[in-house]
């Protein structure tokens, strides 16, 4: 179960030159920022990757601003689980990983398949995942769900992490969701 003390987030390739090609790219970035704001309120550690930033640009500014304290790892392989990223994950010893980013059917899919092989619980807020086509995104979500990843949404993920309306962050998260 998602809890503040056993969960991290992995932000995969939300980059300048990728977003214009994504289906509903602007909404995807907006929802990703909403989630990251909530994760920051809840002190959930975040790791960021960038696929070949020389060619695809850096993480979009709105996400960069919210992940300023997170480590950023460059990669050329499609899975986000480079040796450095894997070491950063292992260092945190999470039971759960919230994965967001693009492209759902390439980098996200390959990453999630490996995380599941490692026995980690993976949560996928569906509005924080993007592909160039909706069909590719939906197909990837089906594949990831078939291996046990939980397809969810921003509100469900944040309220699972809260766990109780008595959580000191409840009011701030509630305002973020409205």
Automatic annotation (TrEMBL):
Family annotation (InterPro entries): Isochorismatase-like_dom (IPR000868), Isochorismatase-like_sf (IPR036380), Isochorismatase_domain (IPR050993)
One Pfam family per UniProt: Isochorismatase
Domain (Isochorismatase-like): residue spans on this chain: 8-155
Name of this chain's protein: Isochorismatase family
């Amino acid at each position: 179960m998602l809890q503040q003390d056993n969960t991290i987030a992995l932000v995969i390739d939300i980059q300048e030159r990728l977003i214009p090609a994504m289906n509903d790219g602007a909404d995807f970035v907006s929802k990703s920022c909403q989630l990251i704001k909530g994760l920051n309120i809840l002190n959930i550690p975040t790791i960021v990757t960038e696929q070949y930033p020389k060619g695809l640009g850096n993480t979009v500014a709105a996400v960069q601003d919210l992940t300023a304290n997170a480590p950023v790892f460059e990669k050329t392989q499609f899975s986000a689980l480079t040796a450095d990223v894997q070491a950063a994950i292992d260092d945190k010893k999470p039971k759960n990983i919230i994965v967001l980013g693009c492209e759902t059917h390439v980098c996200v899919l390959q990453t999630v398949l490996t995380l599941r092989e490692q026995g980690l619980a993976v949560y996928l807020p569906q509005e924080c995942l993007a592909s160039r086509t909706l069909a590719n995104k939906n197909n990837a979500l089906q594949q990831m769900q078939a291996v046990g990843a939980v397809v969810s949404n921003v509100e469900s993920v944040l309220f699972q992490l809260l766990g109780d309306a008595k959580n000191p962050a409840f009011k701030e998260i509630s305002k973020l969701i409205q």
